[in-house]
Amino acid sequence: MTFTNKFKDLKKFYTIFIIIILFLNTALISNLHANSFKISEIEVSQDFNLDFNKKKVFDEAFKAAYVQLISTIITSKDKKKIEKINLSTIKSLIDSFNVSDEKFLEDRYYATINVNFNKKNTYNYFASQNIFPSIPRKLNLLVLPILINRNQDEIIYFGENPIYKNWNNFNEKYHLLNYILPTEDIEDRQIFKNKIELIEEYKFDEIIKKYDLENYIILIIYQNENEINLLSKLQLKNTYKIFNITYTDIDLYEEQSFSKLIINLKTLYEDEWKELNLINTSIKLPLTISLSSKDHNKIKSFEKILEHLDLVSNYEVLSFNNNELTRLPESLGDLSNLEGLADGHYTIGIRPHSITPYKQTENSVQIKGKVLIAELSGSESIIHFQSGDIKWVSLSTGIHPLKVGAEAELHMDVNQFLYFDQNNKLINHV
Questions:
Q1: H/E element, 271
Q2: Which residues pair with 291 in a beta bridge?
Q3: Measuring CA to CA, how many Å separate 77 from each of 29, 80, 83, 131, 254?
Q4: 290 near 11, Cβ under 8 Å?
Q5: pLDDT at 313
Q6: Which 3 state secondary structure label does DSSP give 163?
Q7: Could you give the CA distance from residue 177 to residue 22 in angstroms, rounded to a whole number?
Q8: Spatial CB neighbours of 338, under 8 Å, sequence gap ≥ 6
Q9: Which SS3 state, helix, strand or coil, does residue 68 take?
Q10: In this structure, what is the dihedral angle of CA atoms 382, 385, 391, 396, given to the nearest 10 degrees?
Q11: Count of CB atoms within 10 A of residue 392's CB?
Q12: pLDDT at 150 (0 to 100)
């Protein structure tokens, strides 16, 4: 979002109404001039005979590209909901494609195809299926797989550890996490040996700091006689989580078995990373932006930017006023701190607990809607509701027994808006 003039200096305005998609749990880069998802190097082939049809080859490429796209930005649970869709729907999401390489070899046609999916159309499709995509951010992290044989009460070091040796043999194009494995080190062996009794409590700082990585996964694998117990400690972008999983059908020294384990673990870790980067495309925020009516070039440039921002769902000219000072709508609360922001591209974020059934502050905005889902999670209430064409999600403390189908009044606390610069650095918290 570009603020081309400070609000207090404007005297003549060209007012544009914009609906900007907000998201929960994370902030999204708004400087998105590339308005498509590019899926590269999809390889397809078909026998070259009397029944050869190049259109069918392209159709197979479109299907494969779609699967790769949703595998990249959708969690595995949600992926199952939209994995099987008809070809016409997939084509409606595609902007363009090109063949980067093709050849005929031994009566078979081979092609490498790049497919571009329209971001707006794709986001709208996900929203229609009540699915939130994530930002496809790559991340380098350290993974430390420690195998402990409980029968013999000993650590199996990296050279003999089948999980360590095969970890990077099961990578996919759509994986966002790039795993860095530690090297074999005599000092590390001694640390493991000394800490074996308290290995679950040990923080591994001495080992982690060698690799200069903020993000890491400590994977402790307990090998018992009839089962495998896994303890995963994840540190991903200032978020720390612990998982415990037990398998009874895994043989760590049989390829099909340990490959299943590694693939399952990587899917779990990818899902956790995607959860931290979710975009809630169902929540939309109306804003009014004013531009000088005399600066025609700036107006045209601004409209062109809006057309290429895939997170702007709609905009229109509300008024053309040469005399009055038009402000941001009062329903947005006190946004006076925005005047201190320099011109540039910013991201606005809000967290789910800032949308509640009760008014938190004087700057809370009332939202009325129909309750779709109301559930309790411990001492918290989770409410999904719809206002007009927009679906919202609320997370609040306390028990709020709203009936599904009933009309409800909720509130969004605009004091909790988060403002980020192009480097995703928090700039301002109103």
A1: helix 255-275
A2: 14
A3: 25, 6, 10, 10, 28
A4: no
A5: 58
A6: helix
A7: 25
A8: 3, 7, 328, 419, 428, 430
A9: helix
A10: -30
A11: 22
A12: 84
CB neighbourhood size of 87 (10 A)? 12
Place of tokens 């199996």: 156
Count CB neighbours of 30 within 10 A: 19
- In the structure encoding, which two tokens stand for residue 406, read together? 């009933």
Strand partners, 101: 112
* Tens of pLDDT, residues 343-364: 666 676 667 777 888 877 766 7
Count Cβ atoms within 10 A of the Cβ of residue 330 and give its class: 0-12 exposed, 13-18 middle, 19 or more buried: exposed
- Is residue 384 within 8 A of residue 375, CB to CB? The reply is no
Task: Give the H or E element holding residue 283.
Answer: strand 283-291
Among the listed residues 239, 175, 235, the one whose alpha carbon sits nearest the alpha carbon of residue 211: 235
Cα–Cα distances in angstroms (integers) from residue 197 to residues 200, 202, 244, in the given order: 8, 10, 18
Structure tokens at 181: 């494995």
Backbone angles phi, psi at 306, to 5 degrees: -60, -40
| Burial label, 183 (beta-carbon count in 10 A; 0-12, 13-18, 19+) | exposed
Q: How many CB atoms lie within 10 A of CB 26?
A: 21
Euclidean distance between CA atoms 196 and 200, whole angstroms: 8
- Tell me the β-bridge partners of 374: 383
The dihedrals phi and psi of 102, each to the nearest 5 degrees, come to -150, 150
Cβ atoms of 252 and 259 within 8 Å: the answer is no
> CA-to-CA distance for 265 and 259, rounded, in angstroms?
10
Q: Give the distance from CA 330 to its chain's centroid.
A: 31
Cα distance between residue 420 and residue 346, in whole Å: 6
State yes or no: pLDDT of 112 exceeds 90.
yes
Residue type, position 225, single letter: E
SS3 for 11?
Answer: coil
For residue 145, give the nearest of 221, 91, 205 by alpha carbon: 221
408: its two tokens: 């409800």
Relative to beta strand 108-118, strand 94-104 is: antiparallel
pLDDT in tens, 185-210: 777 778 777 777 778 888 888 888 88
